[in-house]
Design brief:
This protein is mostly beta strands and 124 residues long. It is built from no helices and eleven strands. The strands form two sheets. Strands 2, 4, 5, 6, 9, 10 and 11 form a seven-stranded mixed β-sheet that branches. The protein has a four-stranded antiparallel β-sheet with strand order 1-3-8-7, with no helix packed on it. Strand 7 (67-72) and strand 8 (77-82) form a beta hairpin.
Length: 124
């Protein structure tokens, strides 16, 4: 299984970025997909996740209303649209695949496959 994240970069506060994560080696549509992030000196934290293309989405409170997760099962790709970025969004962003139950949809330990991460840096 491989998850290849891309789309990170250095932007100004208020800018937008779209992260992509291309999956291979798994039946993509059968997996929940999530985005997590880790800032220097901090633990990895949940950002967003979803189970199916037309199913509900889940967000951390700090990004709700600014970020949007989506997936394209035909392309085996999950996206994270990030708008109105803030300096506190600076982190390495990881995509993950797993089969969590609903109560664990925000828990990184419920996702068994991880991408390599992509750096997002937001300056004020």
């Amino acid at each position: 299984v491989q998850l290849q994240a891309s789309g990170g970069g250095s932007v100004q506060a208020g800018d937008s970025l779209r992260l992509s994560c291309a999956a291979s080696g798994l039946t993509f549509s059968r997996y929940a997909m999530g985005w997590f992030r880790q800032a220097p000196g901090k633990e990895r934290e949940f950002v967003a996740s979803l189970r199916y293309s037309s199913g509900p989405t889940y967000y951390a409170g700090s990004v709700k209303g600014r970020f949007a997760i989506s997936r394209d099962n035909a392309k085996d790709t999950v996206y994270l649209q990030m708008n109105n970025l803030k300096p506190e969004d600076t982190a390495v962003y990881y995509c993950a695949a797993g089969t969590p139950i609903i109560s664990q949809i925000r828990d990184p330990s419920s996702f068994g496959y991880w991408g390599q991460g992509t750096q997002v840096t937001v300056s004020s």
